[in-house]
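Hello again,

I reread your note about wanting to compare the complex against the isolated chains. To keep things tidy I'm splitting this into two emails, and this first one only covers the full assembly. Below are the input lines as submitted, including protein chains and any nucleic acid or small-molecule components. They are followed by the predicted structure of everything together. The single-chain runs will come separately.
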Amino acid sequence: MIADTDITPATARPTLVLGVTGCIAAYKACELVRSLVKQDVRIKVVMTQAATRFVGPVTFRTLSDEPVTTSLWDDPGSSAVHHVSLAEEADVMLIAPCTANVMAKLATGRADDILSATALATEATIIIAPAMNTHMWRHPATRANLETLRSRGVIVVEPELGELACGDIGEGRLASAERILEVTQAELGRSSDLVGLGVLVTAGPTFEPMDPVRFLGNRSTGKQGYAIAEEFGRRGANVVLVSGPTSLPDPFGVTTIRVNTALEMQAAAECVYDDVDVVVSVAAVADFRPEYVAGDKIKKEDAPDTLVLVRNPDILAGFGADKGDRFLIGFAAETVDVLKHARQKLVAKNLDLVVANDVSEPGAGFGHDTNRVVFVTREVDEHLSSMTKREVARRIADKISARVSKMP
Ligand code: PMT
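Full-complex prediction:
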């Protein structure tokens, strides 16, 4: 339980991998290194070849007091696969400045230099601070890459309006050092704030078979639940994800158990329940299943006139009845009287928090990369604006983090 869990305080010096790309603003990365070193952050700088045309690696080596890597073929003496060891060491990876070209590489998963290979190999949060000419920033290709990166959880410190190196005035100037530092420090703080916490997440739909071919299902894709599992895992929690059928890959750093039906989901979730401090029940569990499952495909001519359904167990309500010190979070997928139904679920299932989403709203609920939710507790309703499912995941993990940090 959270109260009894020995949460390891994040006292070790955090490691930031700083990627510097080829842009006139590369010199501003020196100021970032100076400030972060003063805050006892260990900085490993990786530079593209183009970046070395603007600032010499010696400058970063001197400021960070660490070796600087500029090529996939650099020999650091300790590891044959240097980009992988850098990727693993990173608590956070910051790319500042980040050119349009490097954004495109990140969006398409290219890994043909030390910076892009490290970014592809890391499980740490990636922050980018783009800097480029206004037309490049506004180009549809860059906008599409930006959306792709955001949907994958990359944090973007937006460029500012101002005078650019080319003499134009417009959007595209690297964000201020203060702003980049603020975002980076917040992410470094989040990089291990949930170490030692046991978390169970359920996600996706359940499929309730009628015969070997047909089933009753729903529209859940697992996106929201997987984002939550990944966020908790990234912040150091021991996460078990029990997932219904989805086309998503297993999230990084998370133990994933795949199931099909509500009964299978219940069995898998109950197996881990004793060992967790937090449950986040995002799955759209089918409330009913066909009473009779045919062993062979039902022929058209044999189809019954009615389908008899039986109730599935309510997995979360079962956990609520045996809550102990756990923190239980349910979701409520509603189309009318959203808050009223969410409050009823909060009480009926003995939950600490219900995340309510109106699934009839454009850009919210099933299948979208974004969601619009309300956090409903016994004390207060907190309305959040529309945001990516990653950001919703971050807000939920922040709530748990705030609670954990108050523990003696
Ligand atoms: O997967 P996505 O495409 O990203 O879509 C996300 C989502 C819309 C599925 C998600 O945001 C969401 O709302 N999930 C909850 C869906 C749901 O089944 O809500 P509900 O109001 O029917 O259930 C209330 C709570 O009880 C949920 O936490 C649910 O997981 C849980 N429950 C419900 C029924 C049941 N038999 N067992 C349960 O544990």
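For quick reference: The pocket of PMT is lined by residues 202, 220-225, 262, 281-285, 287, 312, 314-316, 330-333, 345, 357, 359, 365-367 (CB under 6 Å).

B.
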